[in-house]
Request: fold
Amino acid sequence: MDNWAKTQERFIKWWAKEPIGYPLMKITARDKPHDKNELTPEEDFINAADIYLNAEKKVRNYKNYLKTHWLLADSFPSLSLDIGPGSFAIYVGSEPVFTEETVWFSETMKDINDQGSLAYDAKNKWLLKHLEMYKTAKALSNGEFLLNIPDIVENIDILAALRGPQNTCYDLMDDPVGVKKALSRLNAIYFKYYDAFYDIVKLPDGSSSYTAFAIWGPGKTAKVQCDFNVMMSPAQFREFVLPGLQEQCDTLDNSIFHLDGPDAIKHAPAVMDIKKLTALQWTCGAGQPDGGSEKWYKLYDIVAEAEKNLWLAIGDGSPKDWAERAVKLVKRYGPDRLYLLFGETETKEEADAVIEAVKNASA
Reply:
């Protein structure tokens, strides 16, 4: 992995909120010279489940990707093997429903107090399948790329998957004690599942990377979230969800909160109260402008005031447009607290121009 030592150093400083000179950046380009004869023939996935469960095909495809794409700035090679967003649910009784676009999880809890499945099960068939995928991928990786800890998800998002979102809304009103008991059970076993994957993917120095968010850090690293919060009041979020998130971040060495969509912004102040949380990852939502838009500056101001870092995706328009929005962000928030994830360019020259513009704005 070219320039890996420098990339690690910059990530370490970013998590520690130390000066890094210019923002962390992830950007890739599609025109890397390659010998077509060196590419491994790819097989089509036979069905929707195969897209998520076939580790051999995913490794083969990713190795071809690395041969045909430039990974630039602070990009690093890593492969995600998620069984959908929230595989924790299938470790505690749900069944996955595979589609080409995503994985859904069957509702299995008939009553909020039907909590017998909310316990760690080392012999759960889906957990064993998922771990076996990781062991296979690690054996095939030959050290060419990192394996990301999967998108396990946690807290009330998993309860909502098991109970159904509508039922969970009723539960919050009708049986808040039952909800708290269920969340306590889920929070108590989260790290048993996290650690099972961490122990496979961690590097010799104990560092790790986490799923599609392109984050690496020394020690245990993860994205934490609560997408269900769009259906909660700020008071409910603080009462039911925030305590578990705080415990999670206390245990992790590096944590970043995934805030998803405009309806979730009302919870940003509470999220900023999580002392050990380092950064906010902002997902703008369908039909919304990207993370470089001035529309989101009020949110970013809240994060900056709390002295947290910002993870922002910029991909609307041309690479020139990306650079212009990124430069404005650097001028407003400084170079040291930003992680900017750009889209993929056609040429390395286009990507280099974006990188150079950000560096110049940081000088």
Q: What stands out?
A: The chain has a mean pLDDT of 97. The chain has 13 helices and 13 strands. The radius of gyration is 20 Å.
